[in-house]
């Protein structure tokens, strides 16, 4: 048994993290491989060519080292789980390769996307400072019925073999709870065997709203996006004076319903507002106590807007210390069921203060892929317009129509639109500087990953010769 030769490697004991075992005999015999393993755990997006240059290896030497690393189980566990790049490895790189969707993108072959965002909102009552929407734009009310039939068509035409646990989620564009038949849409997806999820600002989610739209209780997951931890900070972002109190009351009342829905919160940490994270735990604890129930998860994300910057120096140290305080707070009986997801870049700070890991991986407009990746993810607005990027789905957003694949209607299925775009078009070959603003965090990371994979193939070291063993589905 290999475990007899193992000892502790990357030590996260001060964070009460799992310790990752290493094979000391392997390391003694292969010191170059050990340096590669540690590097890969923290740097999942370095190309094979860059690694050759950094470690002064020939292509043949790197292929041989990759083989040794790939064939040991402990090395795989260490690379994928121990480092500051673990979220990238586990949440994006490996699942996208395993599903076969990354290969479909690179080979320009059709595949039904892993994630389809249904964006049914007709308007929004928040005017968030970071939002890319046209604040005066709204859809016609008749799209409530037309949009409902179109979304039903998409659900009905889902190809066999699609993962029903994850494929459809309801989100913005505009606020999804403004869709007149939102409860029916949730119920229809649920009855068709899909785990339905909504991401909403939560302001409309009153007890009366739920009575009128009881299908909301059929949700598998309900994500409420918070934009502040008190009245002032919430108004500063949303420009809605009632937002803070409305959402707080709605959260308490929804938790009192004791549905099977998993309720969680999304929160973006804004520059110079790091201390608000601890206030956020106070907020959640108060909601839990008043509802006699608990919020199940909290997703914390860094601000990656144009005005943002990487978290470095004193700011990084401050956030690291706050994350440690959070872990202690989670021992409270009113917070002990809360799971916190720190996302791609914040996970690096939580695990390792001294890491040189930069912020969220992003691309500029020159790095955008002409055919994007509709085999992985698309968004559909209430008119049936299908968009390649998440932030292009806002009504009347300047230039975003260039990223529409077409319109789903009775004559055109989602499958047909994606297939035609992938196999018969040249894509978007003339990206403009503003186009990178149409990408959300996931879009940025997927683009970085696909570009890296393409570079590795051209260099002569594809996944099959890389350091991580990935079983294709």
- Name the poorly predicted regions: 1-18
Query: CATH H-level name of the largest domain... which superfamily?
Result: Aldolase class I
Provide the CATH top-level class of the largest domain. Alpha Beta
- Give the C-alpha Rg: 23 Å
CA-based shape: globular
Order of helices and strands: EEHHHHHHHEHEHEHEHHEHEHEHEEEHH
Helix/strand structural class:
alpha/beta
The CA-CA distance between the termini, in Å, is: 29 Å
- Strand line-up across the major sheet: 4-3-10-11-12
- Count of individual beta strands: 12
Which second-level CATH architecture of the largest domain applies?
Alpha-Beta Barrel
Proportion in β-strands: 5-15%
Largest sheet: 5 strands, mixed
Total domains: 2
Average pLDDT rating: 89
């Amino acid at each position: 048994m290999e475990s007899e030769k193992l000892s502790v490697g990357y030590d996260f004991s001060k964070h009460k993290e799992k310790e990752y075992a290493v094979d000391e005999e392997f390391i003694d015999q292969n010191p170059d491989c050990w340096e590669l393993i540690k590097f890969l755990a923290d740097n999942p997006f370095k190309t094979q060519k860059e690694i050759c240059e950094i470690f002064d290896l020939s292509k043949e030497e790197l292929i041989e080292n990759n083989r040794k690393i790939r064939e040991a189980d402990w090395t795989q566990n260490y690379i994928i789980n121990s480092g500051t790049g673990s979220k990238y490895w586990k949440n994006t790189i490996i699942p996208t390769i395993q599903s076969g969707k990354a290969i479909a993108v690179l080979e320009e072959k059709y595949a039904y996307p892993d994630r389809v965002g249904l964006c049914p909102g007709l308007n929004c009552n928040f005017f968030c400072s970071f939002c890319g929407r046209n604040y005066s734009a709204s859809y016609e009310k008749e799209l409530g019925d037309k949009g409902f039939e179109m979304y039903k068509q998409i659900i009905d035409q889902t190809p066999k073999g699609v993962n029903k646990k994850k494929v459809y989620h309801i989100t913005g564009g505009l606020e999804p709870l403004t869709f007149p038949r939102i409860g029916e849409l949730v119920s229809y997806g649920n009855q068709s065997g899909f785990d339905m999820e909504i991401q909403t600002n939560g302001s409309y989610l009153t007890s009366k709203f739920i009575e009128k739209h009881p299908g909301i209780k059929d949700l598998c997951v309900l994500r409420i996006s918070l934009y502040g931890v008190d009245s002032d900070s919430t108004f500063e972002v949303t420009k809605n004076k009632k937002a803070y109190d409305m959402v707080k009351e709605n959260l308490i009342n929804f938790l009192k319903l004791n549905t099977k829905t998993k309720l969680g919160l999304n929160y973006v940490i804004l520059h110079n507002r790091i201390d608000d994270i601890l206030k956020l735990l106070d907020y959640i604890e108060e909601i839990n106590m008043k509802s006699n129930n608990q919020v199940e998860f909290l997703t914390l994300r860094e601000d990656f807007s144009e005005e943002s910057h990487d978290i470095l120096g004193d700011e990084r140290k401050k956030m690291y210390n706050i994350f440690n305080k959070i872990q202690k707070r989670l021992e409270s009986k009113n917070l002990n069921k809360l799971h916190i997801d720190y996302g791609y870049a914040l996970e690096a700070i939580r695990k390792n203060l001294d890491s040189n890991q930069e912020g969220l991986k992003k691309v500029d407009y020159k790095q955008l892929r002409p055919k994007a990746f509709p085999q992985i993810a698309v968004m559909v607005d209430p008119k049936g317009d299908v968009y390649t990027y998440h932030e292009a789905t806002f009504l009347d957003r300047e230039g975003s129509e260039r990223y529409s694949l077409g319109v789903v209607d009775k004559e055109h299925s989602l499958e047909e639109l994606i297939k035609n775009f992938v196999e018969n078009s040249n894509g978007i070959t003339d990206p403009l500087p503003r186009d990178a603003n149409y990408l959300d965090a996931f879009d940025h990371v997927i683009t970085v990953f696909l570009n890296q994979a393409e570079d590795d193939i051209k260099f002569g070291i594809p996944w099959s010769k890389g350091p991580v063993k990935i079983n294709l589905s």
